[in-house]
Amino acid sequence: MAGGPTRIYVPCDAAALSVGADDVAASIRREADKRKVDVEIIRNGSRGMLWLEPLVEVETGDGRVAYGPVAEGDVASLFDAGFLNGGDHALAHGMTEQIAFFARQERVTFARCGVIDPLSLADFEAHGGLVGLRKALVMAPTEIVGVVTASGLRGRGGAGFPTGIKWNTALEQPGGEKYICCNADEGDSGTFADRMLMEGDPFSLLEGMAIAARTVGASTGYIYLRSEYPHAIKTMRRAVDTWRKVGLLGENIEGSDTSFDIHIRVGAGAYICGEESAMLESLEGKRGEVKVKPPIPAISGLFGKPTIVNNVLTLATTPFILAKGAAYYKNFGVGRSRGTQPFQLAGDIARGGLVEKAFGVTLRELVEDFGGGARSGKPIRAVQAGGPLGAYIPTRDFDVAMDYEALAKAGAMLGHGGVVVFNDTVDMARQARFAMEFCEIESCGKCTPCRIGSVRGKETIDKIIAGENLTENLEVLDDLCDLMTDASLCAMGGLTPMPVQSAVKHFPEDFGG
Amino acid sequence: MAALIDKLEHAPARLICGRHGNRPDALLEILHEAQAADGWLNDDALRTIADALNISRAETHGVVSFYHDYKREAPAKHAIKLCRAEACQAVGSEALAAHAEKKWDTPTGGKSADGEIGLEAVYCLGNCALGPSVMIDGELFGRMTPERLDALIEQRIEKTERE
Fold first, then answer.
1. Residues 2 through 61 of chain A touching chain B, CB cutoff 8 Å
2. Is there a contact between A18 and B140 if contact means CB atoms under 8 Å apart?
3. Is the pLDDT of residue A389 over 90?
4. Which of A269, A297, A330 is where one domain is finished?
5. What percent of chain A has pLDDT over 90?
6. How far from the centroid of its chain's Cα atoms is residue A179's Cα?
7. Are A173 and A288 contained in the same domain?
8. Which among A114, A182, A261, B4 could bridge A47 via Cys, Cβ 3.0 to 4.6 Å?
9. DSSP designation for A21
10. Contact call for A420 and B62, based on CB within 8 A
C-alpha cells in the first residue's frame, strides 16, 4: 500500500497461540525493524482455518493474502520472498477469502471473525457492527420478537429451542428485574465456536445481549464463561470495559430508554454448568446442580426472576438478523432448521477448523470436502457429532444432512455443531466406556439414573470388554441405557446413552459381537 | 476450654469478599481470587469467606468440593493439564498422558514426589482441531508430542531452579 505501513494480521486466537502465533508476531516485528520496513501488526481473531495456524495475512491492494502455517523460522524467508507485496512462497495460499475451505462457506455469525481487530470499535462499526442494536433500540419489544421468531433462529447451544418463543415468554412476564444470561460454558469436546467468536468478535455477543435486554426489559446480563478459556475471558472483559466507557452499556444506551450492564462470571471446571438450570445455580454462587423444570427460566430463572438463557452463537446472531432482516436469515437452511450453523471439524482431520454453512450440508461434505479426511492419513472409521453426548456415526452413514430433524431421524443429534473424526485405530468399546466414565465424573449427582447409572454402565462395559457373559451384559447395558434416557433429569444422564448405544449398534464387532 | 467459635482470620480472603460486596452469589469469583492468592484454598480462607458472606461452612464446603477447579491442598509448582476428551483422544491424548505419568512418575490427579509437577486431566480446552492439547501453567499448546511435552516441562523446572 502506498504511503502508510503494510498491515500484517497475526491471530491472537487461542488456537493460533497454541501453535506459536505470539512468537511469529514477535519475529515479524524484529525482522521488519532489522530490514527497516514499515509494518503494522494487527492481532485479529482466527479465520477458522486452524490447520493453517498461525495464518499470517498481508493486506495488499487486491485484498488479504494468506501464508501458513508460519513458524518463527519461516519469517526471514517470507520477507525474502516479498510477502509484504503478496509474493509467492512455499507457505502462500493466495487470497485468504479465495481458499476453497473459506470461499465455500456462508458466513453470517462469523462474518467479522478473523477480519477485524477484535477490540476495535471502529473496525466493528466499519463491518456492520451496531446496525442491529440501533434498529432494535427504536423498535417495540414485540416487533423485535416478531423479527427473531420469523427468522427461524433456534438455540445453538444444542437444544434447538426457537429463540423468538423464548424471548416472548420472558417479555410477557410482569415487569421488575429480569436477566439475560449468556451460556458460554462451551464444554463439549470438539467444539470451539463460542471461544473463537468471543476472541475474534466479542462485541457481537454484547450487541446480541443488549438486543435481548431491550426486548424483554432486562437491566442486568451475565456471561457465564468457562475457566478453561483464559483468552476468551480476557478479551470479553476488555470488550465489556470498552462498551461501558463509550456508553454502549450503562444507563440509557444511545439515548434510548434501555439501561443494561453485563458482568462476566467465570466457571470452575464443571461440565454440567453448561446445562441451563445448573448454570443459573452456579451464577447464584451455589453447587451447579440441575433443577427440575418447570418452571422454565424464562418464567423463573436467576434469583427466581424471568431469565433468558441463550448460547453465545444464538445471541451473537441476533444483531445480523435485526440488521439484514428475518427473511435474509431464514433463506439459509432446510425444513425447520433455518439459517446457518457453525460446524467445528476436530479430532483426526487434515483440515480442522470452523465451517459456517447453511443447515443441510452433509456430514460427508464436511469431513471429506472441507476436512480433507484424516490428518493421520489412516482411513476414517467414525465421527462423533454433537459433543460427548452425541452419537457415533459410521462412514456408511456420512450422507446424513446436518440439520436438527435429519440427525434426529438418524438417531444422532446436532448439539453445538461439533464433528470429531476418529481413524480406524479407534476401539469403540473404549469410547462407549469413556462416555459412561465422563458422565460419572461430571454428573451433578442430583438424580439417580445419572449418578449411579453411569458407574454401573462403566462397570458393565468393563465386563463386556473382558468378554464376560457377553449376551447378558449387553442386555443389561441396553436396559440401563433406556432407563438413563427415560428417567434422568437433564441431558447429561439422558443423552450419555446416545454415544454408548450408537457405538454398540454400529460397531458390534468391538463389543465381542 | 478452647473457644467454640474459630477466630482464625484470613485477611486477604476478607478483603476479596469485601471487594465483591460480601455477596453470596459472588462465591465462585471469590473462591477463584482466594485460590489465586494462595495457590489453594486453606481452612482459614474458607472459614473467613463463610463468615464474610454469612453462609455456613458446610455450604462453602459444598461449593468448593463440587467444582474441579478448587484445590484443598497446596498444588505442585507446575500445573500440567492434559486434555483427555474425545477430540484429543482421537489424536493420541491417552498415549501422551501415559507417557507423562511414566516420565514424571506421577499419577493423573497427583503431583511428583519433589512437588515440581502436577498432572491433571481436563475435559476440553477448546483447541480440538489442533490436538492433543495441553495447558502448562496457564499457557495453551497444541499438536503436542511426548518429546515436546518433556522439553517444555523440563524448561519450566529449570526456570524455577534458576529463580
1. 14-15, 17-19, 50-51, 53
2. yes
3. yes
4. A330
5. 99
6. 22
7. yes
8. A114
9. H
10. no
Q: Bridge partners of A334?
A: A337
Question: The whole model's pTM is what?
Answer: 0.97
| Residue A94, H or E segment | strand A92-95
Q: Which phi and psi angles does B145 have, rounded to 5°?
A: -125, 160
The CATH number covering residue A243 comes to 3.40.50.11540
Spacing of C-alpha B33 from chain mean position? 12
The predicted pLDDT at position B1 comes to 46
ipTM: 0.95
Q: What is the DSSP letter of A296?
A: P
Q: What is the pLDDT of residues A152-192, one digit of tens each?
A: 999 999 999 999 999 999 999 998 999 999 999 999 999 99
- Alpha helix ranges (H) inside A275-354: 276-283, 312-324, 326-330
Supply the range of the domain harboring residue A463.
428-511
**Omega before residue A295 within 30° of 0, cis:** yes
> Is B114 part of the contact surface with chain A (CB cutoff 8 Å)?
no
* A446 in contact with B, Cβ within 8 Å: no
**Total count of domains within chain A:** 4
The pLDDT assigned to B161 comes to: 78
User: Chain A contacts of B34, Cβ < 8 Å?
Assistant: none
d(CA A294, CA A277): 11
Selection from A473, A373, A378 nearest residue A419 by Cα: A373
Q: How confident is the model over B73-98, as pLDDT tens digits? A: 999 999 999 999 999 999 999 999 99
User: Cβ A268–B68 below 8 Å, yes or no?
Assistant: yes
- At B119 the three-state DSSP class reads strand
Give yes or no for B29 touching A (CB within 8 A).
yes
Tell me the mean pLDDT in the region A271-296.
Answer: 97
Contact A186 B126 (CB under 8 A): yes
> Is residue A113 a part of any domain in this protein?
no
Q: Does residue B137 belong to the interface with chain A, where contact is any CB pair within 8 Å?
A: no
Question: A143 in a domain, yes or no?
Answer: yes
Count of C-beta atoms within a 10 Å radius of residue B158: 10
What residue type is A270 in one-letter code?
Answer: A
Is A312 an 8 Å CB contact of chain B? no
Report d(CA A49, CA A384) in Å as an integer: 20
CB contact under 8 A, A269 and B143: no
Q: Which long-range contacts (CB under 8 A, 24 or more apart) does A394-397 make?
A: A394/A506, A394/A507, A397/A363, A397/A506
Question: Does A389 contact chain B (CB < 8 Å)?
Answer: no
Contacts of residue A136, defined as CB under 8 A and 6 or more positions apart, other chains included, come to A144, A210, A211, A214, A215, A322
Q: Would you call the peptide bond into B132 cis, given omega within 30 degrees of 0 as the criterion?
A: yes
